[in-house]
Amino acid sequence: MSKFDLRKWLDAAKESGQLEIINGADASLEIGAASQLNYKRKVPKALIFDDIMGYQPGNRVLTGSVSNPKLLGMTLDLGPDLSDLELVEALRGKPQQWLKDAPDFRAVEVEDGPIFENVIPKDKVNFLDFPSPLWHELDGGRYIGTGCAVITSDPDTGVVNLGAYRMQVQDNGASVSINAESGKHGFQHISKWFEREGRAPVAAILGQHPLFLIVSGTEVPGGVSEMDYAGAILGESVPVVRAPETGLPIPAESEIAFEGWLYPDRKRPEGPFGEWTGYYSGEVAPVLTVEIAGLFHRNNPINLGAPPGKPPHDYSYMRSVMKSAMATDALTGMGLAGVTGVWCHEVGGGRSIIAVAIEQRYAGHSRQAGYLAAQHPVTAYMNRFVIVVDSDINPRDLDEVMWAMSTRCDPDRDIEIMRYSWGSRVDPLGVAGQPAYNSRALIDACRPFERLHDFPLVAEASVGILSQVAKKWPGLRE
Ligand SMILES: Cc1cc2nc3c(=O)[nH]c(=O)nc-3n(C[C@H](O)[C@H](O)[C@H](O)COP(=O)(O)O)c2cc1C
Hints:
Layout: H1 6-15, E1 19-23, H2 30-39, E2 46-50, E3 60-63, H3 69-75, H4 84-91, H5 94-101, E4 108-109, E5 118-121, E6 143-145, E7 149-153, E8 160-163, E9 167-170, E10 175-178, H6 185-197, E11 200-207, H7 210-216, H8 226-234, E12 239-242, E13 249-251, E14 256-262, E15 267-270, E16 285-288, E17 291-297, E18 302-304, H9 316-333, E19 339-344, E20 353-358, H10 365-375, E21 385-390, H11 398-408, H12 411-414, E22 415-422, E23 437-445, H13 463-472
Parallel strand pairs: 1-2, 3-18, 4-12, 20-21, 21-23
Antiparallel strand pairs: 2-3, 5-17, 6-9, 7-8, 7-11, 9-10, 11-14, 12-13, 14-17, 15-16, 19-20, 22-23
Helix pairs in contact: 4-9, 5-8, 7-8
The protein binds flavin mononucleotide (FMN).
């Protein structure tokens, strides 16, 4: 077993008390609703659904895999004992390092692997043989691909991309559609293949170590093979088998995988789907649908689900932590002084609401921090509010951020609007058929620079007296 085997990960999750087993759920709505109850808990757990109604025991679905600090730390090999902000600190500089290290951890091709325990020829493929959840009541169909990784290659360079793009079951189970938004790396690869060959090879994994969910669902810069990037994160090359028809690499220990071809005019109606914004996305639209060449699965396979919805949702915690670390690196990497913390809030799906804390050094510093955070490539997509606060405010704590906003921000002078910025097709405010622009606000909730020396002092006990009192009456801190 390599480090990328989901079953090894499950053993570790179970041992650390982070795994719950739910027996007897219906794939139609019950798995989705139970996952929602879980991710709305203060500290969610990983859930394994087994004995799913109408399916053989062992044919399972996993959700909540990266929904708390212990699970996320464990998945990234950073240990299970870090808090939210410690995780962000531990991740600082890592994405750049992984990019550098990726060539040293090239995926290693192996002849065979557990994924080939069952090889299903194309005319026998039925995705409904696996519990494919109807996650939300108004979804347009069954989505077997949520925490999935779509594998594509650049026809010019051979670079392999992993992208989490939702996949709806199509053609009564014989196929799936792949909803890669324009601009995404997978979309770019597919478009290049269309221009060159008239069709695009594609593969996908539908059950795998949650590290692949993090890699495929996070904006890794183009030009690096994300399979190698995953290897760099765990310090071990990913063992891969070659897909027989397309030649694409598939992690050998995956649970469920398929390969096939996309054609520009092979589309099926797709959606709506409950999305990370907390709303059902747009209207039913034609989406590229795979001509399946083969399907592979392990015995007793596990589908990795990551259902979005009104945040916090299944993977919003992971997104917040990864984005917060990447945004902190991005801001300091551009030379911005005095950044003391960044948190991309879960209520905004890790994208729309970003709090940046700074130690003000000069007039205009807070505005500069806000503009940069709102438009840097790492944070620009679907951002709506950047709130800049002083360093005495914990950017992770929305109450503190809102208090700073309500006492240090004068709307007349401290809110800047940016227009025609990078929006998204899933924006509930977007209008169908119109370009996906959005506008965004920079909310400067820092004390005015010229008043730093005489701004009213905060009315709370100092650290010294607090710890003196807490020592005397320890129960008060519990
Ligand atoms: C669970 C999950 C589902 C996602 N679904 C979609 C989707 O349907 N379409 C899409 O374009 N992006 C989706 N995303 C976001 C992309 O995965 C993300 O932007 C990623 O960086 C894309 O990879 P790429 O930059 O290599 O294209 C999803 C992310 C996650 C974590």
